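I hope you will forgive my troubling you with a question about protein structure. The record follows directly beneath this note:
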Amino acid sequence: MNGGMGHIGETRGFLSGWFDFGASLTLSAKVVLLVLGVGGFLLLWQFAPRSESMQTLLPSLSQTVATMGQLFTEKDFGLDVVASIKRIAISFAIAAAIALPLGILMGSFPAVEGVLNPVVSPLRYLPAPSFIPLLLALLGTGDEQKIALLIIGVVWFLISLVMDNTKRVPMELVEASRTLGAGRLRAVAFVILPSALPYFLDTMRQMLAVTWTYLVIAEIVASTDGIGAVMMRARRLVRMDIILACILMIGVLGFLSDALFRYVRWLAFPYLRQPR
């Protein structure tokens, strides 16, 4: 009896905090929830009942994974994956190089925000795919057009978010540096930037996910390589297994890029690590 009560107590201790507002989960709890979430989704994908027609339109997980293996071994899919990663990396690096200085200046100085924000803010509401005809006319069908589309898809949001991140820095820190003799640019470089850098990394991680969502749109127009181009060729042949394999590949790459940003943040800012 006591043993049973002990097991119940251990279970309650393990589950404690899972549904508390603002609670921090232990590493073991996070692993359990990860397995439950991902495992449940994969099991549903694999074993969900399908009619014969649905088996063609919605292949199982095992069929999709087998198709992905064939793409890598027989169709040089690795080269397409590398081409897509290259476009994502270049476009996001350019977008960050534009957004970080502009967003920091806009968040630091009201005059800069007053000039630029009326331009930047409305551009966030323009759908990036609407620029495709203009980009094709200006840049042709090469990588430049695809990279430009990916930049347009995230840069305006990234500028606004970096501006908001900059404003989160306590003004007391800035005022203290100014009292000690720091000029405006030194206050930005040595107070605002280090204080807001963790927020910048979080914002960039979130916006990188948005960049991945635009990848297929960028690669479906006059593209000969990349994951999106493979999907378009598969659509003409009604190969849903290939399309799902490409979607799964994008999901895996997005997850890995997200994990990389999380790891960099964890390494760079140990004082922000949640207690276990």
